[in-house]
Amino acid sequence: MRIGIFDPYLDDLGGGEKYMMTIAECLSQKHRVDVFWDNNEDFKALAQRFSLDMSRVNLVPNIFSPNIATIKRLLGTKKYDVVIVLSDGSIPFVLSKKLFLHLQQPLENFNPQSLKGKIKLSRVNGIFCNSQYTELFNQKRFKIKSLVIYPPVSFLKKNVRKENIILTVGRFRVRDVITGLDDYKKFPVLIEVFKKMVTAGLKDWKLLIATSIKDEDKPVFEEFRKSVKGFPIEFLVNKTNDELWDVYSRAKIYWHASGFGEDLGKHPEYAEHFGMSTVEAMGAGAVPVVIGAGGQKEIVREEENGFLWNTLEELESKTVELINNTLLLNKLAKNAEKSSRRFNKEKFCQEINDMVLR
């Protein structure tokens, strides 16, 4: 089969892009796979960042660009057996034999119930989501059926000694292209909690913030970096997937706070839609202490493989409990690593193949 894949955020190097390009990697083992994008450097950077084998994947001109005439897009997609699109809220018109839409988050601007939307939706063979959180919101709001295919994690745990590290991972953006927030990953919130813990007497622990930064955001980031001066807080910038697994493997605790302080009833997209970095940390034996919102609740089971929190006081107290209780920390670390394996790449590839072939 000939398969085309389009992700409108391909240059953002986020979890959604890893998800879509892993689809490309999986399907390229048995089919011809084309990715619609115009910048080869973005494509190479993404493959390197996430350690993906894109050697069998072809980069072709982006016929989904707003600069491309509709008729050219239609004719361009006619030669494909399957087209898979990460939806930004829109439903494309294509002439491929099959069309699948991926919904990576709750979408406020998705409107399949309009007349135009219904016509477009009639051409869609399937919709699949990255989590039950995403699926339930879109199903409730738009009355559409969808499939959940959890993101894949390739586990690369290193044989290194654990250190007194609290880790958080996420991209730094002055304004997030998907949510529109300038503080989506809530790094300042986590920094203030850690500063409070240090001021209260915490010793011999450090907070590591692994983040990706675009060139245009570097001046703002450098100002932000100054806020941690004098505290055992370090930034790891634009690390490769292999380098990230080194710090995952050394960390004892993993923090995540996306959605904190937001009205998630009004803006459910502000919470973490799944939590791929949480699963990666767990796969390396780091205990998650993450906000009890969004897709995180599908990953972490309270006091079994980690902790969920809803207030900053809970974040601090549950973290301190782990720091002071080595037996509990080790127990949850083992359970976290074991439970993370259900989000494996082999299962993901099989589910994607089953979907496109049905």
Q: What proportion of the residues form beta strands (DSSP E)? A: 15-25%
Q: What is the count of distinct domains?
A: 2
Give, in spatial order, the strands making up the sheet with the most strands: 3-2-1-4-5-6-7
What is the overall shape? elongated
CATH architectural name of the largest domain: 3-Layer(aba) Sandwich
> Radius of gyration over alpha carbons?
21 Å
**Total number of strands:** 13
Structural account:
With 358 residues, the chain is of the alpha/beta class. It folds into two domains: 2-149, Glycogen Phosphorylase B (Rossmann fold, 3-Layer(aba) Sandwich); 165-342, Glycogen Phosphorylase B (Rossmann fold), CATH 3.40.50.2000. It has helices spanning 15-27, 40-49, 70-77, 115-121, 132-142, 187-199, 218-225, 241-250, 276-283, 312-324, 326-340, 345-357; strands at residues 2-6, 32-36, 57-60, 82-86, 98-103, 126-129, 147-148, 165-169, 206-211, 233-237, 253-256, 287-291, 307-309. A seven-stranded parallel sheet has the order 3-2-1-4-5-6-7. Helix 7 links the parallel strand 9 and strand 10 (233-237). The longest helix has 15 residues, at 326-340.
